[in-house]
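Exercise (ungraded).
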Amino acid sequence: MKLRALRRGTQGLGVLLGIFGITGIGMTHLLFPGLHCYACPLSITVCPIGLLQNLVISGTLPFYFLGAVALYGLALGRGWCGWFCPFGTVNDLLAFRKVRFVRTLSPVKLLVLGGTVLAAWRLADTWFCKLCPAASLTASLPYLGLGVAQVNAPFLLHMATLGAVLLGMALVSRFWCRYLCPMGGLLSLFNRVSAFGLKLGEGCTACGTCAKACPMGIVPHREINAPDCIKCGECVPSCPTRALSVGFSLPGVRGRDPVRPARARPGAHGVPPRQ
Amino acid sequence: MKRALLLLLFWATFAAGQEVALSPVPTDALGDWAQAMVPLRLRATPTQEVKFEGPTLLLAQWGELGLGTARYALLLGVTGDGEAHLWIDADRDRRIVPAERLTSSRGAGYLEWQTTLRTGAGGDYPLGVVWPEGRGYVYLLGGAPRWGELSVEGKRVPFILVDGDLDGTYGSKGDFYAADVDGDGIIHGDPDGHERFSLAEPFTVGERSFRVSGVDPAGAAVKLAPTGYVPPKPPLIPGSPAPDLQFATFPDGRSVSLADLRGKVVLLDFWATWCGPCMEELPKLLELYAAHRDQGFEIVGVSLDTSERDLRAVITDRRIQWPVAFTGKTWDNPLAQVYRVYQIPTTYLLDRNGIIRYRDLRGAELAERVAELLRVPSAPSAKAPEPISLPAGPPRPILELAVPPEVGLPPGGKGTVPVRLVNTSPYEAEEVRVALTGLPAGAKTSGVELPTLPPFGERELEILVELPPTATGIQRARVALVYHYCIGDSCFQIQDEAPLALALGEGKPAAGIPTWWILVALGAGLVVVALLRGRALLGMAVLLLALAGGALAVGLLRGQGVQAWRIASSLCTSCVGIEEVRAEAPTFTPAQRAALQALPGPVHLVVFTTSWCKSCPYAKALVAEAARLSPTITYEVVDAESDRARAEGAGVVRSGKVVVPALLVVPTGRVLFGTTDLAARLLAALGEGR
């Protein structure tokens, strides 16, 4: 429980950074390490996906964007999704059902990322922003209150995508992070080489308990630090033999990568050890 | 002393000819023709630092007058009591004190002030300022005419020099002179008058011709040099014989001349299909022609159209049966030049003897005069013809055409030429066509056409061009511009062009060390990571870290951090999906138009935009249209990114972000965001507090 309390604390920090404009600080040059609309009235950071589209539209080679995202990825990988991203936190709050659900659809988020770039390039418009549920929540709704937005077709489209995604989250835990988030897709490329990660130590009996605890529906002990792993550490306390741990470690060391398991698999797959 | 030296220099340079000393003469003594009118745009801030020490103003608009080297700040302000006043920093001390306020006189819908300023050369320069109420510009009225007499074969010939461009310097482009060459005691100085000349034109008195060989910039004297005999301009005033015209009719090619039509009452009509007032008059002409043709009435139409197709369509559709002349040219039309036509519609009504009897008659009055002339079989009418008054000023270009001197095309020769058009006048330019001409054979290009360009509006256009594969090096071409505009019932078509060089095969030169490989290596590294098995991940992580750091550094050095900040610190409502992108031309419903036209009192609007905001052009165009419809509305466009302080002051900033497009209604301070139902919201905001 200590780990989860710590994570709730860092998630709180993520929300705090998202609304830090409440202190009166204006927009900074900082890229947000997650999905948070820069149009949010209280935002002080730049949404990476929003920026990416604008850079593509303006024909700029995105050095600053890719450099910053790669540094974020090398630091925490998708750990940002599990420990920091405010929209990930919304997913967490609605995660009632930790179900395994159509894993094959998970690369869709990379298609969303590709589609976002393609739309910006060919249509010269920020189409992802117009559909983004994070923008619906943190820009459209607040601006309606501030008298800038009005109930019109784009507003209703935003509300429709937000409604659909919220419903998805309630039915499938971390629905957005699993299938649709383009920022999650980007960070997932760095999951195996990030400094922060899960580690499978000695003692795993491959009982599969960790898989039941995983909000992303993966099987941590078999595919440790897989692209979909958000390194939230929900699996860590669930492990009966305390074989799993989460924290900073060097990429590629024993137990960090599924191709270099901590030890040979036990013979009796899926049988929990005697307590 | 300076002036004496200048005169001495002037004298030394042009000692060979006749010098005419000139002295100021009031415009009233000459007539409207000696008065030039030039619009002056007003802005929200002065161009030079000027301190205003007068009362608090609800609305302040600044302008700058240049008279030679002297520059005067002009402030048009509305005080708390709702009265508009004009201040001119007459002593040029960069302080406007209450005593520098001018006394106004009021006309229908406008205010007028009169003042006398000193030119850079030290002379007095009377100037009128007319403000059409509520507008963002004023008209400068004047020309400071100067009078003198020259002596030709013992006769004294009055000579007038006018500073036509109101720049305080005589002899510059746009200035003109007039002389009573026919000795009738009246100077016919109207733009098509036979006694008005541009500085480059010679004039003839009796048997002797002169040209202006020098003008004192302060207007103290002109130097005239004798020149070879030039036939005098034929007068076009009622009572004088109409100059002959000969042409082949369009489209059937019959030969027609005015001389052949003696014995008939002839209406000579200079017109064009693009001229709205001409087309409005056409049904009445058709009716008149049908009614009186048999009694000896004829119409001769000289078309100033450039489009043969348009003219053919109108002649066929309206069944025009009178002879029409078409040369494909407008103001340089040789037939129109005989009559010095500078605006259309221009009409002359000739009697049965080919004498000009009336000018520019329309509708019922025309029908009456035609009937009157038809009743007189041959002898000229004894009734003295009515004098004609015309607005001053020949057609002048109102659009500024800006084209880069050289445009680089990539290898293959396909690219775009950026063209910028600025309307410098308070008139709407219509049917604006821009095209490339003078291209080598085989080149492809597509012209651009704008239906209208609003008063003081700006547009940036791109003309596509594709040169043939054989083209190499630098290709010379021209950007041709054609448009027309109307002032009241008078329309003018203008052609303009700018030279252009198309440089082939010259892309952007590579600057500095190429850095794109960092991004490629970063992507390749990620692919390798996905394929790697175990051990080498640490090494890859270190490599990726170095690449990421490098990419970030390059990005920061290229100012992409600031670019990111700029993008994120402005909220373009249509970009984040708060509303739809609107790019169509804005329109007002008839009810909204009526409401706009009925607005009392001046209203100033400020449109806040950014260069990349997609709906901002719509907001700008809507406000421009509102200002066009309602004389009480003035507006300005502010770039909210570059003038953030102004945006913050106006309340256009929400939680640290500039929201664009936004519209500030100055009198009430009301801010309207976005473009959804903007026309209706603007009207509601304009109606507030009234």
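Further reading is listed at the end of the chapter. For now, observe: Chain B has twelve helices and 42 strands. Residues 537-557 of chain B form the longest helix (21 residues).
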